[in-house]
Amino acid sequence: MQKWQYKIVHFQADKWTRTGLPKDLGEKFDDFGSEGWELVGTEAIQRPVFFLRGGNTVGMIAYFKKARN
Predict the structure, then answer these.
(1) What is the pLDDT of residue 67?
(2) pTM attached to this predicted model
(3) Is the N end or the C end of the chain the one with fewer CB atoms within 10 Å?
(4) What is the number of domains present in the chain?
(5) Helical H runs in 1-69?
(6) Is 5 strand, coil or helix?
(7) For residue 31, what pLDDT is reported?
(8) 50 pLDDT exceeds 60?
(9) 10-39: b or e for each residue (b if 16 or more CB lie within 10 Å)?
């Protein structure tokens, strides 16, 4: 039976905007991938804006897994 390790990583947005996530986010994901981590999901963390629909992105949570040796 395959056993897994899990990693949960929080990325803080550089500023409170819709596109404020780190510019090198793809490189960070590549680094995790080269270590054997597979991205299995993401979730945006938003600051609510009550007079507009939705909100501004203030961060992101990324979920990774890799096979346990």
Answers:
(1) 95
(2) 0.77
(3) N
(4) 1
(5) 25-34
(6) strand
(7) 95
(8) yes
(9) ebebeeeeeebbeeeeeeebeebeeeebee
